[in-house]
Specification:
The complex is a heterotetramer, with 2 copies of chain A (326 residues) and 2 copies of chain B (392 residues). Chain A is built from 12 helices and 14 strands. The termini of chain A are far apart. Chain B is α/β, with parallel strands linked by helices. In chain B, the strands form 2 sheets. Chain B has a 6-stranded mixed sheet with strand order 1-7-8-4-3-2, with helices on both faces. Chain B has a two-stranded antiparallel sheet with strand order 5-6. Classes of the chains: A alpha/beta (326), B alpha/beta (392). At the B-C interface, helix 1, strand 1, helix 8, helix 9 and helix 10 of B face helix 1, strand 1, helix 8, helix 9 and helix 10 of C. Bound molecules: thiamine diphosphate (2 copies) and magnesium ion (2 copies). One thiamine diphosphate (TPP) sits at the interface of chains B and A.
Chain lengths: 326, 392, 392, 326
């Protein structure tokens, strides 16, 4: 049975599936009930699973995550929705000091099977705080796992896998893609493991690493480069903590060049870690330093110039050129 | 034989305890909301907050509300036409905002949310300046110091703490409780019913109480936080929250500009006098959607809206003014012209708002630009030049 | 002619409004604290919370408090001898903790701070297990599920939300309000007077009220948050905070184990019955330093301490028990032996607590170890081996 | 006039000086008044400057930073003390969404001349949350400046310079050093600029980069290495955002090898960014990849094994050896 779905639909179907499969799965957040979330990712869930399992919370992110910690201690598997990336910070303390550390603190006796869903990234013409990319901060925090989906089919599978994980997962959803492209979902296949990266386009001249919203950009860049006779390999990292670097090292050893792209600020973004690791592991294979294409090191600007702030096809190609010319 | 606390029902018991006053912490006062003007436009009296309003003042309120509504409908239309990315409508909240805005003195300071267009107007901020952030050309175009009106704050509740800190600064500046009406100052922190659940807002109550800061917490309870009804945030009337922190709370009819003005003014005066914070709950209703991207039909009944239309803040003042011969058709017609001019100003001005230059993205990250930012700016400038105007 | 709110003084007015009851939200009750035993050890009666205590029960409370104090003094001594890095003393808070701890049923669940050694003892946690985190050998050695007693929480206030969420889980499990005393359950969230200022604690009040969660907020107001007096956190009695959130608050004499027991039990029963949250303020005093590294002489008067010594929770119960012939010298002597044994257990046990293996640092970062952690573990193991036991 | 002072004393003297020089300077935080702070850094200030300028705050970090924002808007220059590194997170939202963005949001009209002092790092045998190193998260946030002092004299000057800055500064103090070594303070010299790194020991074989508590470790390592005939150059980075990489690049171009050490987790720590930048700028000079020696990617462990978690002389030397053997 195969259907064409958007990312929003994939996530919605995945959530529904997880709730059907396990009565301990709960959804919590602002406006997740009747409204179905501001992006409609939880559309219809409260109607079908009731107010006890799809919980409209008071307007307080620390409260949402903090009560979810209690729910998890009681044996539930809460899936928390943060309405927009920029509003996760009031919950930051609960996430880094409680959610991330509970398993460690308790020597594994009190695991935190919690998923914190965050629509992230820019490009939707929004006002301040609605286009942030906070992943590096979470990936820097031991005890959290961090993943980012980039397409409808991954959305469907990854959300279920994240919910099934006994470790807390920060689940990043590229909001710009929610209602963009459709893809074919075949529910009968076995999905890749959650914490694995994936080569989404094979190539030989340079490796482009991306995740979430920039996967599409990277693929478009590869398409354009192909027209110029340059063959780019594109890897969708998918998991940001842990990183699945095996396929990345293999690729860079073949191509000798790597470009990492993400919307988050370059300074101390995921690209920094990936660059450091590639250099450590592939030192003698590198023909050029790993180059990084990301959001600039400014606060997210007014949306009319956000496409200048965000990495795009041209900036990725520019970095590829610089790498090739190095 | 087990003693039990369980015989206390909450609603009724608390009401008993709070006594008949709408002012928590006050032994006197009439039942229910503070109201000076009924939905039908009848002037009613109030033991604690009544005052006389001159004809000019009343017409002023009316004009303010009509123009504020025009700003709102014009901006909503601009959003529909693609000129704004989003707009946060205030429809229905005009009286709450004009009442609060007009109670201010020049030396007072305001910390708004993202919906205080009416208060901005009272402060003298050109409404065109409000459109920039909704259009996406800036994050706030006005200088807070020009009108003592802070920038819009989008992270819910954050500004309640800023307001409290600012008020603590006023205490240190010696502009509280001196008795000089041109000197004594206070701060208003605006926020919504939903915001009352944020830690920051409750911490602001704690700091304000602890330092007796001259701040008025002005909560527009418009009954909704996007799709969530007020009941999700509080099971008792919101103004009573103040009781738990040891300062007065008062619920005023937020669709009654006279009552809102009177109550806010009293609370501000209390603050200026050095008597500390007050929570004012302006009980009103969000007649529009949360923002232009919201679809309230998914979560609320149209009946509700119909019910509140009968309480329209502008209609009720107009009824009163007409009944008492304080406005006539000429006045209304002139005001219509003024509103049309304002509308024109907004439409033309909005479309003319220039897009920012890409390189302006690097401006003001710091007061002193770092070499790092300078390098990124230069790099991007060179990169842009490399396209020679032909960038895809 | 300006109406003013300024004639309201806060303290007195609020007291008027709250009425004579110590129970905010309650129309009845005696003046002041709930107390069943005076500092002199006189049994007094209370209209709302009185109950009969059997001799066995009373001796039990006494024994509990004596042993709890022994745990505390023993741990303090261990710290002085360098066996613990730090210790958070509970001296003076024994009645508050034993009263609260003994009111629990097995199916109830407790979220402690870092000072709830007496409650831990009531839950059956081996006191030796408490020492690990203060010694620096672990972050909490007991299994929360064994005794329904959570791990100590050091980030102030965070656990109030965990407690509320846990209580919401109980609601979903159908163990609230069934009427079955072996089934119905509730949660206690412990925190201090200082913690009442944290956003998290106030948000916990909001969530608990909104969902009517079966949670008792048990605040030990020991008058100090390190060097800051309670006045910095609240200008009205803390139990009244609950009023602002729409659930009952009650102030109990936290140095009176009988009253604390009775009030907590009533609040727990209310929660188990499905009637929602209660705030219990146990009014007590931190007779020791904040922790063994603190020096309270820098910020508080020794007079204060002397004053509170007269209210010692153990002395007062002993006076009552002796006066009524409920304990004799033999009982006290036997208890002394028991306490000495406990002291011995702690001293010997503490010194024998093994240091963790360096490589255990990599355990339990995740439930499923990642390759990254495995690699770091292996790398460090190899590195350690390279020193062949000769590491500097 | 020259005196021997500890780091605690240097900071205390610097604060006092700043308060004397500018009446707008305020100190806010938990227990900063009568107690003088749990580390006594503000000792005596309330007595001399009064309760209006040295403010004991309610126990709420978001409240402290949020009210400090308001104070700054009113024209004050608040110096906020966070009691321990692990307690900065309740204030994280105010710091990253308000303090960091206010200048940008307001186009420079509402600057945030605020200093947030954080005693950071481990090694004092403390319980959980008292030994964290949160610097990377702040350095990743545009709009914040982040510095770390490593010695008494720098403490004295840097705190004054941070207070004088019109930009918000996260000011990290290595708590383990507060009452450790003394140094000679000569108040008549002109201090280095705040946002500059500094070579603290010259060498030729490899460059060791450190800041805050690891500067001492790096110097000890250099001392030990010298005994083995290996010459290490040690740079005290001092400023983490902006980074002052000029001296670092110069050094690495000479030595061809770099090791970065900090107490923060290696994954996405400052070392990642520094490694990425060095590789970008000094690609052809590098004889080995930049190696990183930091806290492991676990939560901070129980203190009895914290010295295993923290980088020390031996682990730095081990990395130097690996670099030299590469
Ligand atoms: C911290 C934070 N969380 C979530 C949001 C998203 N959000 C924007 S407005 C809003 C509802 C606010 O409701 P209320 O406080 O009642 O104000 P109103 O919009 O009704 O004026 C929400 C949840 C936000 N802006 N900030
Ligand atoms: C979020 C946070 N901020 C600061 C601290 C440091 N701290 C530890 S205990 C304490 C005082 C707590 O006072 P209170 O809540 O009254 O509890 P008590 O210690 O008196 O039992 C402080 C400030 C902390 N642990 N967590
Ligand atoms: Mg609202
Ligand atoms: Mg206390």
């Amino acid at each position: 049975m195969s259907t064409r779905i958007t990312l929003a639909k994939g996530l919605n179907m995945g959530l529904r599936k997880a709730m059907e499969d396990d009565p301990k799965v709960l959804v919590m957040g602002e406006d997740v009930g009747k409204l179905g979330g501001v992006f409609r990712i939880t559309d219809g869930l409260q109607k079908d699973f009731g107010e006890d399992r799809v919980i409209d919370s008071p307007l307080a992110e620390s409260g949402i995550v903090g009560t979810a910690v209690g729910m998890a201690l009681r044996g539930y598997r809460p899936v928390v929705e943060i309405q927009f990336d920029g509003f996760v910070y009031p919950a930051y303390d609960q996430i880094v000091c409680q959610v991330a550390k509970m398993t460690y603190r308790s020597k594994g006796r009190s695991p935190m099977p919690m998923v914190i869903r965050i629509p992230f990234g820019g490009g939707i013409g929004a006002v301040e705080h609605h286009s942030e990319s906070p992943e590096a901060q979470f990936a820097h925090t031991p005890g959290l796992k961090v993943v980012a989906c980039s397409n409808p089919v991954d959305g469907y599978w990854m959300i279920q896998q994240a919910i099934a994980s006994d470790d807390p997962v920060i689940f990043l959803e590229p909001k710009r893609q929610y209602h963009a492209d459709k893809a074919e979902l075949d529910e009968s296949v076995t999905p890749d493991p959650l914490f694995s990266s994936r080569i989404v386009r094979a190539g030989t001249d340079a490796t482009v690493l991306a995740y979430g919203p920039t996967v599409k950009t990277a693929l478009k860049a590869a398409e354009a480069a192909a027209g110029d006779g340059v063959s780019l390999e594109v890897i969708d990292l998918r998991t940001l903590s842990p990183l699945d670097m095996g396929p990345v090292y293999d690729s860079v050893r073949r191509t000798g060049r790597a470009v990492v792209t993400h919307e988050a600020h370059v300074n101390l973004g995921m690209g920094a870690e990936i660059s450091a690791r590639i250099t450590e592991e592939c030192f003698y294979s590198l023909e050029a330093p790993v180059l990084r294409v990301g959001g600039f090191d400014t606060p997210y600007p007014a949306s009319r110039i956000e496409e200048d702030f965000l990495p795009d096809l041209d900036r990725v190609l520019d970095a590829v050129d610089r790498s090739l010319d190095f | 034989m087990e003693p039990s606390l369980s015989h206390h029902g909450f609603g009724p018991d608390l009401a008993e305890v709070f006594g008949p006053s709408q002012m928590a912490g006050s032994p006197s006062g009439a039942l229910g909301l503070v109201q000076l003007l009924t939905p039908e436009g009848e002037r009613v009296h109030h033991a604690e907050f009544d005052r006389d309003f001159g004809a000019e003042e009343l017409r002023g309120f009316y004009r303010d509300m009509v123009l504020t509504r025009r700003i709102d409908t014009e901006a909503t239309a601009l959003q529909r036409h693609g000129e704004l990315g989003i707009w946060a409508q205030l429809l229905g909240q005009e009286a709450a905002q004009i009442g609060a805005g007009r109670a201010l003195r020049p030396q007072d300071y305001v910390f708004p949310t993202y919906r205080e267009h009416g208060v901005a107007y009272c402060r003298g901020v050109d409404p065109l300046n409000l459109l920039g952030l909704f259009r996406g050309v800036d994050h706030g175009a006005w200088n807070p110091k020009d009108n003592n009106f802070g920038l819009y704050t989008i992270v819910i509740g954050a500004q309640a703490l800023h307001a409290t800190g600012y008020a603590m600064g006023m205490q240190r500046d010696g502009v509280v409780g001196t008795g000089d009406p041109d000197r004594d100052a206070a701060v208003v922190a605006h926020f919504g019913d939903g915001a009352s659940s944020q830690g920051d807002v409750n911490e602001a109550f704690i700091f304000a109480a602890s330092y007796n800061a001259p701040v008025v917490f002005f909560c527009q309870n418009n009954q909704w936080a996007i799709s969530e009804p007020i009941e999700r945030q509080s099971r008792i009337p919101l103004y009573q929250r103040a009781l738990g922190f040891g300062f007065p709370g008062v619920r005023v009819d937020g669709n009654d500009v006279l009552a809102t003005y009177a109550v806010t003014q009293a609370a501000l005066q209390r603050a200026r006098d050095g008597q500390g914070p007050t929570l004012v709950e302006a009980y009103t209703y969000r007649m529009g959607a949360h923002t232009t991207t919201d679809d309230p039909t998914r979560y609320r009944l149209s009946d509700d809206l119909e019910h509140w239309k009968l309480k329209d803040p502008i209609a009720r003042l107009e009824a009163y003014l007409r009944r008492n011969g304080l406005v006539d058709d000429d006045f209304v017609a002139e005001l219509k012209v003024e509103a049309d001019e304002l509308g024109h100003h907004l439409r033309e001005g909005c479309k003319a708002l220039p897009d920012p230059q890409p390189l302006s993205m690097f401006d003001h990250v710091y007061t002193e630009e770092t070499e790092e930012i300078a390098a990124q700016r230069e790099g991007y400038a060179r990169y842009l030049e490399s396209f020679e105007g032909s960038r895809s």
